[in-house]
Specification:
Blueprint (H helix, E strand, L loop, with lengths): L3 H21 L5 E5 L2 H9 L5 E4 L6 H11 L2 E4 L5 H14 L5 E3 L1 H10 L9 H11 L4 H5 L8 E2 L1
Helix pairs in contact: 1-5, 3-4
Length: 155
């Protein structure tokens, strides 16, 4: 667990990164890809306005990629920061790289650096950020600004 000044730095870094991600995900045709329903809930609670696409929605990875190609203009892949999540992100990216859409893997990488190994599952992101904010006497909602409800799951 991070402590004191380091925790403040981590929280500030997260808030800045998440606000940029949230603004970019508001662009029409943007989909944020997560692994499952708990990941979707966590990301939605953090105010992502894009359509949140579930990879574990009963379809093969190829079928999910084909659906994204048909419906999305921009795809941000936000799978877990464990080995399986990394493999899944890279396999999906391989399906999507040849297509005419904006593919974002950088946000996932930056979040991994910001989290410094403290968190490996996207489903815990909201709780982690909220607890860190509260330890510093802040409200996560205040730090992140107004949060609009996100679309329901797709996938």
């Amino acid at each position: 667990m991070v402590r004191g000044t380091e925790a403040t730095d981590v929280l500030e870094e997260f808030v800045e990164l998440w606000q940029r991600f949230r603004a970019a995900s508001a662009a029409p045709g943007t989909f944020v890809v997560v692994e499952g329903e708990r990941d979707r809930r966590s990301v939605a609670r953090l105010g992502i306005p894009a359509t949140i696409f579930l990879l574990h929605g009963g379809h093969t990875l190829a079928a999910s990629a084909a659906r994204l190609v048909r419906t999305a203009r921009r795809v941000s892949i936000l799978t877990d920061w464990d080995t399986e999540g990394g493999h899944l992100a890279h396999r999906l990216a391989e399906f999507l790289e040849a297509e005419r859409l904006d593919l974002d893997l950088e946000t996932r990488r930056r979040l991994a650096r910001t989290l410094r190994g403290e968190l490996v599952h996207v489903e815990g992101l909201y709780g982690w950020a909220r607890r860190l904010a509260e330890k510093q006497g802040d409200s996560l909602d205040t730090l992140l600004g107004a949060v609009e409800p996100a679309d329901g799951p797709t996938g």
